[in-house]
């Protein structure tokens, strides 16, 4: 159906309808815009959620990544981050393919509609103007006809009256003729206007208005089609990201399927196995008549390992730890900020793993240095054959430096291999009979005998209970003070001055109250002489006399280029 033929008299209603169509497009565009904003907000929240649960550097969560379940969760977080990216893609495509296009189309649509209705109003005004002219000529013709009739009647009365002079009759007759002529002219004019109006009216309702309404109909159909295309695009934008979203979900599923409980259980053993054998039988200590009762610690006594249980006034008992020396030694190493270079603060099994990892890292550095040395040697050979390419002597300083580095690294490897051999020699095999304590623990017992005797009375608390923790702590201090590793670790006089490998800036102030640490203030610049080795501490130097450890999270480190490369 055509609007021009069917709706020829509905100009005002068509104007309202087309305006409501434009408002619908604007409303749909606003809907898509709000959906795009929701997608951006959702993607941002998903990214923040993924970032929030990412393991922090040098944190417990990062340590837990050796477990398959934790690695699966990390993979899920990474996939979730990619998933958020697809919602950002949806928002971008909605904006570029729908919102921007509809905005441009609305501008064109409003201009076209305005043009069509302007032409329609102009045609309406034209036909109304002709109608007014027709009505005016019609009224004038009607008035002139009445005037002619009155003039004719007056002439007839004058002609019939015998008392009227002939001149008056002639005058009345001429007046009547003139009125009839005017009426005839008005009739002709009215007829002309009528003919013209009918032609213009026919042109208006059968040509002009149908053409304008036809253009409006085509415009409206294009608008509806454009809305349909936008709605289809709206669905396609979502469909386009489904494959990648599916891959993200598949990645999450694959991560979940990669979890291996047995492997994680095995990893717990690898992480915490100390290498010690369970304690042996406790020997009988005779306190009968004639025996000297000394409060000493023997190799087979559990007084230090388990703690002597004394009755508390309330009937309870205080229980000690099985290996207090190991626990307190670890506490001390944490307080000092970094363990000894030979990892002697760790249980044998853990120490062996750390030493082996250190040896592997140094061997990698040696291989890298050797590869670079081989490359420079070849370059020197090329220079010797082709002097124009470069001076062979210019390479010599670097070769000497590399040779020294390799020699130094090899000595480091030998040092750590010696410690490794020592640890592997001490580790008991499954066929060995169980021993009560390790060598260090035995040394601790012998060295702490006097301390134990002297402090026996002091360990009585005011309520009469027995306090084992104080004893263990005192023994630890004596044992460590008499351990060679402790002397080597903190003998500053024999220690070689470490070279500067970079700089750092203190992000926060740190009060270094513990031994081995150094106080820094926020914004202070210092030299880095030892990187964080995974324990959360970085070694820094303020000047030739002041150096120590600071928490890695408290400083921003800037390493030199060659340090980063190695």
TrEMBL record:
Residues 1-264 form the F-BAR domain. Residues 499-560 form the SH3 domain. The lineage of its organism: Eukaryota, Metazoa, Chordata, Craniata, Vertebrata. Residues 273-322, 426-475 are annotated as: Disordered. One of its GO terms (molecular function) is lipid binding. Keywords: Cell membrane, Coiled coil, Cytoplasm, Cytoskeleton, Endocytosis, Lipid-binding, Membrane, SH3 domain. GO terms for biological process: endocytosis; signal transduction. It holds the Pfam family FCH. Belongs to the FNBP1 family. Signal peptide: none annotated. Residues 293-306, 440-456 have a biased composition (Polar residues). It is found in: Cell membrane; Cytoplasm, Cell cortex; Cytoplasm, Cytoskeleton. Residues 426-435 have a biased composition (Basic and acidic residues). It comes from Oncorhynchus mykiss (Rainbow trout). This is Formin binding protein 1b.
């Amino acid at each position: 159906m055509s609007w021009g033929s069917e709706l020829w008299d509905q100009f005002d209603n068509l104007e309202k309808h087309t305006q409501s169509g434009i408002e619908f497009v604007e409303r749909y565009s606003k809907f898509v815009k709000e959906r795009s904003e929701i997608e951006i907000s959702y993607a941002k929240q998903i990214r923040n959620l993924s970032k929030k649960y990412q393991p922090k550097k040098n944190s417990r969560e990062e340590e837990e990544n050796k477990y398959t379940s934790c690695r699966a969760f990390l993979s899920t977080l990474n996939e979730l981050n990619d998933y958020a990216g697809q919602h950002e893609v949806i928002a971008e495509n909605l904006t570029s393919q729908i919102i921007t296009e509809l905005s441009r189309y609305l501008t064109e649509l409003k201009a076209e509609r305005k043009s069509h209705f302007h032409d329609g109003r102009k045609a309406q005004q034209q036909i109304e103007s002709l109608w007014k002219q027709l009505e005016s000529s019609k009224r004038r013709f009607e008035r002139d006809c009445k005037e002619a009739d009155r003039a004719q009647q007056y002439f007839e009365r004058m002609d019939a009256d015998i008392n009227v002079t002939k001149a008056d009759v002639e005058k009345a007759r001429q007046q009547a003729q003139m009125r009839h002529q005017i009426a005839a002219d008005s009739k002709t004019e009215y007829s002309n206007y009528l003919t013209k109006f009918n032609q213009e009216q026919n042109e208006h309702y059968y040509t002009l208005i149908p053409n304008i309404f036809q253009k409006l109909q085509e415009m409206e159909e294009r608008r509806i089609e454009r809305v349909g295309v936008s709605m289809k695009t709206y669905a396609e934008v979502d469909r386009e990201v489904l494959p990648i979203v599916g891959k993200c979900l598949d990645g999450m599923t694959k991560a979940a399927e990669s979890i291996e409980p047995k492997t994680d259980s095995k990893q717990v053993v690898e992480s915490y196995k100390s290498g010690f054998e369970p304690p042996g039988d406790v020997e009988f200590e005779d306190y009968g008549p004639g025996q000297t009762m000394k409060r000493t610690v023997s190799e087979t006594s559990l007084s230090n390992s388990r703690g002597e249980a004394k009755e508390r006034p309330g009937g309870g008992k205080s229980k000690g730890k099985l290996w207090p020396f190991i626990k307190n030694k670890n506490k001390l190493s944490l307080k000092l900020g970094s363990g000894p270079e030979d990892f002697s603060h760790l249980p044998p099994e853990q120490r062996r793993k750390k030493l082996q990892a250190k040896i592997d890292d140094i061997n990698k550095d040696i291989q890298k240095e050797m590869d670079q040395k081989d490359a420079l040697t070849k370059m020197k050979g090329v220079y010797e054959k082709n002097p124009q390419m470069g001076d062979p002597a210019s390479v010599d300083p670097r070769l000497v430096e590399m040779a020294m580095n390799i020699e130094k690294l090899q000595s480091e490897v030998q040092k750590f291999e010696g410690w490794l051999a020592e640890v592997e020699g001490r580790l008991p095999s499954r066929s060995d009979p169980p021993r009560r304590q390790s060598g260090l623990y035995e040394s601790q017992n012998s060295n702490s005998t006097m301390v134990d005797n002297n402090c026996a009375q002091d360990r009585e608390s005011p309520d009469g209970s027995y306090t084992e923790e104080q004893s263990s702590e005192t023994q630890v201090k004596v044992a460590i003070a008499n351990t060679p590793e402790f002397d080597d670790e903190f003998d500053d006089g024999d220690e070689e001055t470490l070279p500067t490998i970079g700089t750092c800036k203190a992000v926060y102030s740190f009060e270094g109250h513990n031994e081995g640490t150094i106080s820094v203030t926020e914004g202070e610049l210092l030299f880095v002489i030892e990187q964080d080795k995974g324990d959360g501490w970085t070694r820094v130097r303020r000047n030739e006399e002041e150096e120590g450890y600071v928490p890695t999270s408290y400083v921003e480190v800037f390493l030199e280029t060659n340090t980063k490369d190695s």
